[in-house]
Structures are given as structure tokens and as C-alpha cells.
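A student in our group prepared the protein record below, which I am reviewing. What it holds is a sequence and that sequence's fold in C-alpha cell form. My question to you is simply how this chain folds and whether the C-alpha cells agree. Do not assume that whoever made the record got everything right. I have pasted the whole thing underneath without changing anything:
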Amino acid sequence: MTPCDTSEAARWLMQDARTTALPEDILEQLCERMIAGGVPLAGCGVFIQTLHPELFGRCFIWRQGFGPTVLEFPYESAESIALQRSVEAGIRPSDRIVSLDPDQADSCLSLQVFRDLRAADVKTFVATPIVFSDGEMHLAIWTTRRPGGFTEEQKRGIENIVGPLSRLSEVYALRRRAAVLLDTYVGRASGQRILAGQIRRGHTEALHAAIWLSDMRGFTELADNIAPHTLIDLLNRYFDCQVPAIARRGGEVLKFMGDGMLAVFPISESDGDAKTVCNEALGAAYEARARILAMERGFDGGRAGIRFGVALHLGSVMYGNIGGERRLDFTCIGPAVNLAARIEKLTGRLGRTILASTAFAAACEDPMVAVGEFELAGFVRPQKVFGVPDEDG
């Protein structure tokens, strides 16, 4: 029998694996090193719970001869609920290694997520807890085709790498958690800047962009007439009509302000094309308008009167860290944002959904129509405002 020694695999986890970019690649290389160390692995599955607005967890699966795959599970899916229950029922943080029966009703191996590990020639399944430093428990499952399953020496070889695997898994999970949280709350580009170290108060940079500022009309009255939980659901659905349309066209949402939203479509200094960017911003406005109209028809029988207005402007803003000593906001400010806010207020007054500034209309390839000149608070000269042709009359 081949002697079992996984010390090299454990050393690799502790010293060299951190240079590997993707967790699934780490799992593949780890399994190959364990096989070289005498552990006859047929497959491995590592399940890690996440901190994500939509996902309960991710599972990394490796099978010999097939390479790694990554599966993601939404919170309310039957798979996520069953997986959580089976993990809680089947393994404890104090356990070192636990044999699993795939035919047992409460075994996580009965779940579809691990179906690839249950190949016909797999003889044995064992599980080890992946415990983070704060007590969070996750799960690793190891399989073999060896008749009789893993020997006691091979099980000790698996146990030898669980500690280093837990520490490295936690590092990668925390990195991903930080990126997801920043992406969720401040946006992808802003989050990348923050993770890169741009966190000093007052650190700003000039940004040339198409600016989007939208607001729901009649929100205060609506809030007084529907239940709070219904209002929250309405707001989430309302923003779902806008955010994907903006993101698909290269924009980034910077801020939610109650029922209002600020977004930018950045224009690169080196090869930026204002016409293309403005066309994308206007396309997002058209899509958002159509989706909100469809949502209105399905909400409260169409009686709620959901309306919104969006102002589009092209200009330069200061983009960066602004706020108090220990509470900062990564946002943009400047006269261009102020002008977009003033124009947005005109949407209700003029009975239009989409309005734009002169600068935006001039850069946009799609035709826009002048709707008048207006005195706007904070601006010395009247500002010419443009609308879209299909809202005339």
C-alpha cells in the first residue's frame, strides 16, 4: 500500500496557494497534491456560505478527470434550505472527520448539488468541517473509489490539510465578502477604488460622464397610503426597473436617496466617446420607462399611479471620498450634478418622463426636442431643456 503523507499539500496551502487567483483552481491543485501524497481521492466538494444579497452559498466541486466547477445557490431555493438543514444535522464544528451515508434521508449527499460526487464507482464519502475563526462552519466532502474506503492513515492525511484549508478558505471568503459588500453598497467601480486604497477623506478625482438623476413622483403621498412592507417591495421593484438597464449599458449607480437615484456613465479620458455613452444612457432611460410602466399596470390594479422622472446631463464632476471624520461617502458632486437635479424637478411640472440638458442633447445621436428655457435655482442664466420626441403633446 502506498504510504500517505499530505504534509507537502498542507505546506503548499499555507505558503504558496495564496498566489492562485481562483478558489476552484486551489481546490484542483490541492486534490492533485493529496493524490500525489497517497490519498486516493475520486472527488471533493467544498461548500462555503456567503454574505451576498442574493446567494446563500457557493459550492466548489472537483472530480478526477473532469476538473473543477462552481455552483451558486439563491437564498430561497429548495437546495439552499435543504443543504443548510443537512449540514446542521450531519456534522458539528468539533468533529474531525465524519463518514456519510448517501442513502440516509438527512445526508447532504442526497442533495442534487453533490450528484457528481455520487458516481457509481465511488465507494466512500467522508466530511470534514471547515471552521472559520469566528465560528462559522462550512463543509468539505471527500470521496474515493478505493474498495473499503479510506484507510485510517489516509483519513489522518485528510485531517492534516483541514486546518490550512480552513484558514485559506476564510481569507478568500473575506476577500470576496469585502468585494461583494462594496459592490452592493457603493458600486463596482467605487468598490474597486476603495479596495485599492482610495479611502482618505478629500481624495477625489475629476470624472467626465453622462449623469443620471431619477426620482419617483408622488412618493410621499403613496407612502401614506400603503403598508410599509408593501412600500419596500414597491421600491425594490421600482429600482429593479432601472438598475439593470443602467448596468448593462456601462453605467454605475452611486447612490439611492429614498426614492431617488444618482448614476453615472463614465467617459474615458483616453478613448471615450461622448456620443456613444449618451446614446447608452438614453437607451437605459427608455428601457427603465417601459419597465416602470409595465410594473405600474401590475401594481394595485394600476391605481397607484407610479411615475418617475429622469434627468440626463453631460459634464464633469468631482468623484471621491466626502463626509465626516470616520463616516465617508464615495460619491460625486459639482455643478453638473446640481443641474441634473434641477432638470429632474421639471419632469413632473412638464408632464414628461425623460428630460436632458443642452450638453447631453448635443452629444446624443438620437434626436431630442427642445421643450423650453427655464430659470433654475442656483444658475444665473436660463437653461435650455430637451425632451424625447415620443413624449411630445
Notes: The chain has two domains: 7-185, 201-391. Residues 152-186 form the longest helix (35 residues).
